[in-house]
Amino acid sequence: MSAGYPSPAALLHKYGLRAKKSWGQNFLGDEAILDDIARLAVEAPGERVVELGAGLGHLTARLLARGAEVIAVERDRDMAAVLRGELGERIRLLEADAVKLDYRALHGGGKLAVVGNLPYHLTSPILFALLDQPEAVSRAVFLVQREVAERLAAGPGGKQWGLLSVLLQHRAAVTLERRVPRGAFLPPPEVESAVVRIAFGPPRAPVTDPARFRRLVKAGFAQRRKVLANALASARLAPPDALAAALAGAGIDGRRRGETLTVEEWAALERALGPAGAS
User: Fold this and answer.
1) Is the domain of 122 the same as that of 33?
2) What is the pLDDT of residue 277?
3) 74 is in an annotated binding site
4) CA–CA separation, 52 vs 113, rounded Å?
5) Which terminus of the chain is more exposed, N or C, with fewer CB under 10 A?
6) Any idea which GO molecular function terms this record carries (predicted)?
7) How many domains does the chain have?
8) What is the mean pLDDT of residues 179-191?
9) Average pLDDT over residues 242-255
10) What pLDDT band is residue 1 in, cutting at 50, 70 and 90?
11) Other Cβ atoms closer than 10 A to 224
12) What's the maximum distance between 2 C-alpha atoms anywhere in the chain?
């Protein structure tokens, strides 16, 4: 079925539509890239896959061809009409906001795979939503701006290493799978894109309080030019003497910058702050 699915241009013409720039709509029509994304998202027939921003249904059709049970999430009523017209009852269509999705209510007793072509302005909110519900998701495969993908998959020690890098890699293995040129889309975006795969699993290192861990890492990167001790003191996560003791207890020099710490060091620092609520 997927091989015979109409092109983005043909579907837009058929339904009298145009891509909405304000919604960040750029439709991927390259068959090889679509097949790659579907292969990364669906490892076995029968898996339940949530597709965020299903759009015109090009990736949706390939997910179905691989035997997935597809829950297509699409907030744009025009796109939802295309999905109903082209794929009908083969999918479960949710006209909902992808940022506010409750994955726990959709997993049906197993874990979900999540896939989608994410507009830049929604990438971080969607990733944080996944981080709030990692127990419901086995993997996520996203098409995002290339610079974003490189940051998510980066290692410590450079400018690309940041809050989302640490938080995601604490709960998942993150790999940049392939770059996607502008010409693969209609209309072509202004930037290059890339496919990133996020395979969720147990925490890479234990933490006492996940919410405090997130606040700690956020504080460490909020003022990147400051040394770690000063950045954390500015955030007032704990009294100065408690922070100094935690840094010493974790074996971390407070004169380092947050971007030099590994996931394991961030976790050790959080644990060194003591029982949740004590700081």
Assistant:
1) yes
2) 59
3) yes
4) 11
5) N
6) 16S rRNA (adenine(1518)-N(6)/adenine(1519)-N(6))-dimethyltransferase activity; RNA binding
7) 2
8) 95
9) 96
10) very low
11) 12
12) 67
What residues make up the domain containing 264?
Answer: 210-272
pLDDT of residue 279: 46
Residue 278, domain member (yes or no): no
Judged against a pLDDT cut of 70, whether residue 278 lies above it is answered with no
Question: Does 2 score more than 60 pLDDT?
Answer: no
d(CA 257, CA 17): 49
What is the per-residue pLDDT across 31-49, written as a single tens digit (0 to 9) for each? 999 999 999 999 999 999 9
15 and 112 share a domain?
yes
pLDDT (average), residues 232-255: 93
Q: Is 277 annotated as a binding residue?
A: no
Q: Quick one: pLDDT at residue 68?
A: 98
CATH number of the domain where residue 263 is located = 1.10.8.100
